[in-house]
TrEMBL record:
GO MF annotations in UniProt: ligase activity
Gene: gluQRS
Organism per entry: Devosia albogilva
Biological classification of the source: Bacteria, Pseudomonadati, Pseudomonadota, Alphaproteobacteria, Hyphomicrobiales
Protein name stated in the entry: tRNA glutamyl-Q(34) synthetase GluQRS
Family statement: Belongs to the class-I aminoacyl-tRNA synthetase family.
Domain Glutamyl/glutaminyl-tRNA synthetase class Ib catalytic span(s) in chain numbering: 10-277
The enzyme's E.C. designation: 6.1.1.-
Keyword set, alphabetical order: Aminoacyl-tRNA synthetase, ATP-binding, Ligase, Metal-binding, Nucleotide-binding, Protein biosynthesis, Zinc
One matching Pfam family: tRNA-synt_1c
Amino acid sequence: MNSPPSAPVLRFAPSPNGLLHLGHAYSALYTWAAADRLGGVALLRIEDIDTERCKPEFVDAIFRDLHWLGLDWPEPVMQQSDRFGIYAEAASRLRDNGLLYPCFCSRSEIAAAATGTDPDGAPLYPGTCRHMSNAERIERLERGDPVQFRLDSEAAILRAGMLTYTVVGPTVTDRPQVRYARPERWGDVVLQRKDMPTSYHLSVVVDDADQGITHVTRGRDMEAATDIHVLLQMLLGLPSPIYHFHRLLLDDQGHKLSKSRGSKSLADLRADGWTPEEVRRAAGI
């Protein structure tokens, strides 16, 4: 007897390094609406690997803001800061396969040597430490030099071969389309730092797999990062979700709403007398 197919699982995964703003509200409301359309469930995940910037009071504020918007989710809520050992294990698997190497270059050294930029506009790492001898690596690690661990993208792409992923749009119920991933444009991305056993790229693919995420809804600005995620999924033997990239909310100058640009928080809007219905209308949900 065949078992029935599992219901779709989506997720909203904010970082508690500040208060949520209207752009976050749009993404959350969009994800819950997409889950409803698919007959599935939306999970809340707290992406707090940056233990210096992420604060418990911002986690509490996330819960408060989302409940105010009328959203709920299954418990318990996954928090990445509880899972560092799991991410370190995934990184060890990559290292054991010869795909992770230590890099001792400073930001200024990388900027001076870079000959291009990655899709985010950051200097593209030229692979300087990839060719370092094992003896020098061991010496510098034992000396305690500042270090980060990078994916050997050339070896990883050679092992992975041609990579594709599935996209739906303009709505989550549209016909799936296949796109080709281009991880080479990211170069040797950082997956670990000495004081942090993971990165966004590594933790997100591990979490999506562990939570059984079937559909990832996120802003169009994150589409390029899917190149790296699909590559890591293949290397770690993890399933690849269906991806959907929604529009971004922009300010009057045409910039994406963001904490760093001081976009007005949901708490401020609530204090100004906004209702959840007004937030939904402003977000276009």
